[in-house]
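Table 4 source record.
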Amino acid sequence: MKNKEFKSGFVSIVGRPNVGKSTLLNRILGEKIVAVSDKPQTTRTAIRGILSDEASQIIFVDTPGIHAAKSRINQSMVDAAYNAISGIDLLVLVVDAVAKPDADFVRKLASKAACPVFLVLNKVDLVEPKERLLEVIASMSNLHDFAEIIPLSAQSGSNVEHLVDLVRQRLPLGIPYFPEDILTDQPEKTICAELIREKVFRLTNEEVPYGTAVVVEAFKERENGVIAISAMILVEREGQKGIIIGKKGTMLKKIGEQARRDIERLLGTRIFLELYVKVQERWTERTAVLRELGYE
C-alpha cells in the first residue's frame, strides 16, 4: 500500500433504527461483521469496518440507531451514535426510502456534522411507484446542502459500489491506519458474540432480545484445528431464560446451530460452540454491567 496519493479517512454511518445501516456495512465489506435483524436497535455499539485497496483505506463506523432512549442501555446506544459524528471525514446519513423520512431528524443530524454529508436513500428496490423516489429525493435535497444523494439497496447491493466510489473520491490524503488484510478492529470474540446475539434477535420476539447480551467467555483453538467457543447469554428474568432455552432446549440449540454456521464462515474453520443462559436482573440499567459489556 505504498502510494504517494494514498487516501484514508473515517466515515460514520448514522440514521434511525432499522434503516439498513448494518446491512449496508456488511454489503460494503462483503462479510458479515455486524449483527442484522428486522428488529430495531439490533446494533448497540459503534463498530468499525475497514475497506482497503492499494490506493485507499476507508474506516466505516456503523452506529446504533438514534431513537428516544427509555433505559440506560438505550441512552448508551444513542450516545455512541452521536459521538461517532465528531472527528470524522465524511458522514453517511441513511434513511428508509419506503417510509416517509423524518425531515426534522435529517436536518438536525446533518447540521451537527462538521464534514461533508452523503444522504443515502436505502431500500429503493421496494419503492412503489418508482416515480415516488424522485419526490423523496426532491424533498430531501431541500433539507441540507448534501455533498451527494445516493439511492441504493443495501439488501441487493444495487448502487452500493457507486457509494463506495464517491466516498473514496472525498477522502483526504493520508496513511493506512490498519493492516490491509483486516476487515474490522473488533476482536474475534466480540464479532462471535455479535453473531450469536443476532440469532437471539432473529429467533425471539417482544422484549426478549432487548433484555439479552452475549459474552464469549472462552475462545481456544484445539490441536485438531477446531476452535472451541463458550458463550454466556445474559438475560434479565427467568421467563426470558425459559424462552431462550425453549422446550427441551430446542430454541437454544437452534440459536447455536445458526450462529455456528455464520461463525465458521467468518473464521474459515470448524468450531465447537457451547451456549448457556444466565439471569442478572435489570442488567440493562446497571452502569457497572454495561461498562463491563462494553456498552459504556
